[in-house]
Amino acid sequence: ALFAAGLFPGILAGLSLLVPALYLARKYGWENPETTERPPFWPSFKAALPALFAPVIILGGLRSGLFTPTEAAVVAVAYGVIVGCLVYRNLSVRSLFELMTDAAVTSGVVMLIIALAGIFAWAGTTLGTFQHLADTLLSLSDNSWVLLGLVMVLVLIAGMLLDAVSIYLILIPIVLPLMNHFEWNPVWFGILLAMNIAIGQFTPPVAVNLMVTTRIANIRLEHTIGWALVFIAAMSVSLLLVALMPAIALWLPEKLGYVVGPW
């Protein structure tokens, strides 16, 4: 149900990013169709076809139940290696070893964070700390929209500092009592959390995803902050629309026969 519920919010988020990107590109002349030579469409499409099958295989396997989301990551990596080595021939044994080394270092850091977050979540649940925090938040207001706004601010701040997996492990025990108390739809609430965390991952001071993209583009992080704020604002608008209109997230899974609960 969550997978289906993310389709239209994802499209909405994509459009909210597309509009400012197109506006800025036209305003600053980053791409002028009259002077920029575009590659032929069909040769480019044929060359990209093997890579385009990757999302088809992943989404098809997930939708059919052939593999789980975790197994889908393995399938995606295996397919990418096969296509890169045998079709495009731009992956060598040396480059594969370097990629595996980088992945091991990154995964080690993430696994350490997940382990510590797991200990934190277990301790907070065992000691009742999370329940006390939830009770404290409930004491601030009886209005569900006010509490939802506070939760979204809390999730955004966490997204600015931590990775997504750690946020889920740490904050879910805190916000779950609030969700049950106000009877928020769990599917809709899960989509709001995912969108808000995505916004936080591009928001300074840490901006985990922004650090990754700046490394790929080989530019300094501080040079992108002003531009990133434009897209953060656009994503925030899409988040607000999904919060105000739950049907954006819940209509499709309900039509597909999933039990999504009351809106």
UniProtKB/TrEMBL annotation:
It is a multi-pass membrane protein. GO terms for molecular function: transmembrane transporter activity. It comes from Marinobacter antarcticus. Keywords: Cell inner membrane, Cell membrane, Membrane, Transmembrane, Transmembrane helix, Transport. This is TRAP transporter large permease subunit. The chain crosses the membrane at residues 6-26, 47-66, 72-91, 103-125, 145-175, 187-207, 227-252. One of its GO terms (cellular component) is plasma membrane. The keyword Chaperone does not apply.
